[in-house]
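> run fold DUF1462 family protein
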Amino acid sequence: MEEVLVYGAGERCASCVNLPSSEETAEWLRAALERKYPDRQIAVRYVDIHSKLSGTEAAFAAKVINEDLFYPVVVIRNEIVSEGNPKLKDLYAVLEDHSASA
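> ok
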């Protein structure tokens, strides 16, 4: 199973006030990926950067905070794919590339 992680926080970042929340973005991505890839198992999971985390998730959350990244930050296979308002075309390209190399 592939996993798409959406890092963010309950509050929106200052430049993202007019965009959906990180949690809403995770739900939107889940629905979009299910429509695009009905035969693939792709889990989309929201990760709150201010919650108690460990390992890789803690490292990515710290990166989002310390580097003032615009969230949501979308991560696939430990690679930041999108920062701020995600573009489906970019996510599809990464997922297609990973599918071809699997």
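The chain has three helices and four strands.
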